[in-house]
User: Fold these one by one.
Assistant:
Number 1:
Amino acid sequence: MEVTFNRETESEMYGKTLWENPNFPYVFRKNIVEYDMQSASLSVSRRFHLLPDEKLDQFERMPKEKRTREVGLIQRDDKVFSNNMINGVLQTRKEFMMKNHIDESNVITLHSDAIIFIQSKPVVDHIDNVPFICKENWSSYIRYGRVEMFYGDGIITYKGMPTQMMQQHTLGICTFLLNVFEKIEEYDESIFPYLRKTQKMYLQDRLPEYWYIPFGTTGPYKNENMKLFSYIAKIAAKEVK
């Protein structure tokens, strides 16, 4: 079965596998949730009859990692199936959003079969037998370049940051950002002397070496992170009143 999804006539938000809302570069003190399409490759294939039922039954009995690999191989070798799968995911995601009145006024970001938005009421979590599950829940968010940071219960979840790069920043900038989220959420005005002190020590080369590795980018050593400090200071000025 061919699945059509006219991206030219749809909202930009609906027609992209990855979409970031320019109106929400950061969000604080909100109920931010991530709803994911459960077993998207199977549920979308069943919904739109993209593969024979016996093949899908076989995949369903496989461990998730093996199933993902097998479906990925089909997508690689069968461009029609791959295109139908992408369109099927987009169509199902759109229907979930419309059914629950989720639009650009509360969507933060879209990641293929995942929708991250500000939730204000319960949602209908099935679209034509395709289940959506609430995978994560956070209270604040900052996007910096391609890096997305989600904060909740004293933990930051990073998206768009390679694991190795994140590990390099664990003791330095990641700890700094954790303090930033906590202070902004609490309207803690001590964030301003904290930011000034951190930036001063940074400029005077008084911090450990790992602080000077560019955060979330491969930009120039040391100077690149001054952009991050400036961005955080602007957010704090607007959010801590």
Note: The chain is about 45% helix and 20% strand.
Number 2:
Amino acid sequence: MALGINPDYIMWIDADQVYQEDTIARLAKHIDDGMMVVNGVTPHKENGKPMEYEFRGGDAVATMIDGFQVNRGLVKVDVPGGGGQMMNPRVYSILSPPYYIRTEADPPGMRIGEDVLFFWKLKQAGVESWVDTDLHFGHIVNGIINVTNGGN
């Protein structure tokens, strides 16, 4: 639907994340400077590690980049962390639909999400994805608090 209004940018956000006040302006500047896809850094919900991934083999299986460092400007990655992502709408004219599908890989039953497969297609088409390592997002986690003995 967004492509139907001829937008300058397409932004993806997640409902379980919080963003810096200047996120849109910063990401739009990167797109204006010629990048096709750019993200900020999203922490993993369980351990806070930056959710930045790479394709290590010849297939669409992505592996988290160990020791990924933040606060070092723009860095090229294969798969940025998802939410808080801005794209130049031309990305969709480079790829053929369907843009977002899920599939399986080896070992049998291993699922590859639609986001990872989308970035695999981008990489195959020669489109680079970037992360602004100075732009940090927060990830909201849910938990259960149980009543303690004594109620105080």
Note: Residues 2-139 form a domain with the Spore Coat Polysaccharide Biosynthesis Protein SpsA; Chain A fold (CATH 3.90.550.40).
Number 3:
Amino acid sequence: MPPFHLRYRLSRSQRLRALLAMEGISYSVFGLLLFAFFCLAIVLNGREGKIGGAFFFTAMALGIFLLWKTVFLRLVGVLLFKWLEVDLLVRDNGAGILIGGERWYFFFDGITSIKQYRPDLWTIRHFNGFVLHIPKRLITEEQLQYIRDEMERGHTPEGMRMVIERGRRVQELMKEGR
């Protein structure tokens, strides 16, 4: 498959609805409410001079934040930015995403799922936590099948060996760069 290049914008609504569908509305709302409750308890205990209670609820809020970190951070991104500009360059076995003027790469063999959480978006989840949404109208079935095939190849024993070997090469390069 020849490389292809996609440029598109995702609205706040598209990203929020996809996030809630991926994580579950009740799961997300429960986490947010629990975090808000602990933050309120911190403030109330601090105002009353109950330092021990404030530290306890700070620890609880931190624990909830760590449990729901990806949901919270993605939600903050949705709330802060009305539009998300995506510049995606797909190559042989991976893709590059332009973020702030620098292109970051991820390999297709690390993809854990490709699903439609919304009728107009394909959502690609990577094992490292990266989530990519691609409008359905922009990607052909052939291109999507190529990505799926590469994902499946990474889940075979030979694909796993390739991933391990690539990791070793990256470690060697990092040692040389020091």
Note: DSSP finds six helices and seven strands in the chain.
Number 4:
Amino acid sequence: MASSLPFEQLVGPAQIYVAPVGESLPNVNATPAGNWYLLGPTDGEQKAKHGGALKYFYDNDHQGPVKAVRPQEDIVFTFMVVGLSLEDYSRVISTQANLADATIGVNVRTLPFKRGATPTEFALLFRGTALSPYGAFPGYYYVSRGVFDGEPEAAYARDGRAGLQVEFRPLEDDTQTETNKLGFLRVQIS
């Protein structure tokens, strides 16, 4: 199998799961259970961008930089969720509690567009059945605490498939080890 390094692009469509912050993590080869909610599959075009530009320092004795530090770091997941229901849409832009059912001649469900000042925090599993660079093995990106960011954009294709283009951004989680505070990638290797 060809190497995927530096592994910037996720392989194939992924399944997006969200859960309340603190939900227990499933094994890499197990379908998430408990409070993990399948938000939906992606359209196959998803990215994990590692942010955090270096700052370089110079002195009078050298022409080139003598030190580099990363004052901030980040990772942003960008993907389109397809097969969208109103419940899925509401989780991304606000909270499912905002959905309202009514009977106005017919039974209807309404999703208000007002999102509010404070976003809902979720745990995120970005799971692929062949995400491992070591073969056709499962893997996932896991974020223990984060928010849907950016400006979600609903798209309706000619084939009738609805999708929602979103970004998910981790927030540091002090309940995790130092290296896992923004999440991690876990893959099966054999």
Note: The CA atoms of residues 83 and 162 lie 6 Å apart.
